[in-house]
Amino acid sequence: MEFEKASMNMKSFNKFRSALIIKLILLTGIAYRTICSLKRTDLCIENNIIRINNYEIRLPVMLKENFGIYLKISNELKPDREVLFIEFSGKNMSTKTSTLSYFMKLLVRRGDLNGLIKYAITNMIRVGISETVIMEFTGLKKDILNDCYKMVYNKDTKKDI
């Protein structure tokens, strides 16, 4: 049913793709520009793995299934594409977050992605993932990472730890 709805019209496709991207951000904390640069070959459904900035991570089962649905739809729209995420028209996904922001605003009355990204990053910090790995993996800048360290350690900067 999800497949039928999302493949029928642009609005349903945009909602499905946006929900998938939100889940990916919550899991990984990656920057939107990194999402836009993901290649179709970065996703390996058979092995349940996605490669982000040369790091491979295992996807949760439900997210793997969501990606499977997305691939069926997007392959119908544009089978010969290089990028993972596309617009309903088959073009590469816009680097502007307007569609995703609109969808988020409907859900949580907040349209920016920073809160989602910071949630994932603070969890990475709490489990001891190094600053270097977080920055390489997510593609984030130092300022967001520093904000996350402040939240976790309630300090002005990471250096105060």
Describe this structure in words.
The protein has a three-stranded antiparallel beta sheet with strand order 1-2-3, with no helix packed on it. The relative contact order is 0.16. It has 161 residues and is mainly alpha-helical. The chain starts with a helix and ends in an 8-residue tail after the last helix. It folds into two domains: 110 residues, hpI Integrase, Chain A; 46 residues. The longest helix has 19 residues. Helix 1 packs across helix 2 and helix 1 packs parallel to helix 4. It has eight helices and three strands, in the order αααβββααααα.
CATH class of the largest domain reads Mainly Alpha
Enumerate how many helices there are, as a single number: 8
CATH superfamily of the largest domain: Intergrase catalytic core
Taking pLDDT < 50 over at least 5 consecutive residues as the criterion, the unreliable ranges are 157-161
Average pLDDT number: 87
Give a quick rundown of the structure.
With 161 residues, the chain is mainly α. It is 58% helix and 6% strand. Helix 1 (2-8) packs across helix 2, helix 1 runs parallel beside helix 4 (61-77) and helix 6 (114-126) packs across helix 8.
Question: What topology emerges from the helices and strands here?
Answer:
Blueprint: H1 2-8, H2 10-28, H3 32-37, E1 43-44, E2 49-52, E3 55-58, H4 61-77, H5 98-108, H6 114-126, H7 131-138, H8 142-153
Antiparallel strand pairs: 1-2, 2-3
